[in-house]
Automatic annotation (TrEMBL):
Designated name of the protein: DUF5808 domain-containing protein
Transmembrane segments: 78-102
Organism encoding this protein: Microbacterium arthrosphaerae
Keyword entries, A-Z: Membrane, Transmembrane, Transmembrane helix
Region (Disordered): 1-27
C-alpha cells in the first residue's frame, strides 16, 4: 500500500491510499473524498457517485480529486439549499401575515 499526502489551501489534508492494482482512494479527516481507478480509457476520477472525468495520466486524475474546489456547489446540494431557503422564506412570510391579522 502506498500513501500520498497533499496539503490543500483550506488547511485540510488529503490522504491517498493504493488498496489494490489500478485503484486509489482519497480521504480527508477520515471521510471519503474520492477515488481514481484505471480502466482501458485511462484514469477515471470519481467523487461520491459522480464521475469527475477520465484522464490520460494518474497525476491529472489525482489532481482532479485533490484540487477540485471545495467551494463549488454540486447540483444536488444547490437545489437543496435553494428549496430550503424558499421554504424558510414562505414560513417567515406566513408568520408575518398571521401576526398582522391577529393584532
Amino acid at each position: 500500500m502506498t500513501q500520498r499526502v497533499d496539503d490543500i489551501g483550506t488547511g485540510s489534508t488529503v490522504h491517498w491510499t493504493h488498496p489494490g492494482r489500478g485503484e486509489w482512494t482519497a480521504d480527508r479527516n477520515g471521510r471519503a473524498v474520492g477515488e481514481v481507478r484505471r480502466d482501458a480509457a485511462g484514469y477515471v476520477a470519481t467523487r461520491g457517485r459522480r464521475t469527475v472525468g477520465t484522464y490520460r495520466s494518474l497525476d491529472a486524475a489525482l489532481d482532479a480529486i485533490d484540487h477540485r474546489s471545495l467551494t463549488t456547489l454540486q447540483p444536488g446540494r444547490f437545489w437543496t439549499l435553494a428549496l430550503t431557503t424558499i421554504n424558510v422564506g414562505i414560513v417567515a412570510a406566513i408568520s408575518l401575515v398571521a401576526t398582522a391579522i391577529l393584532r
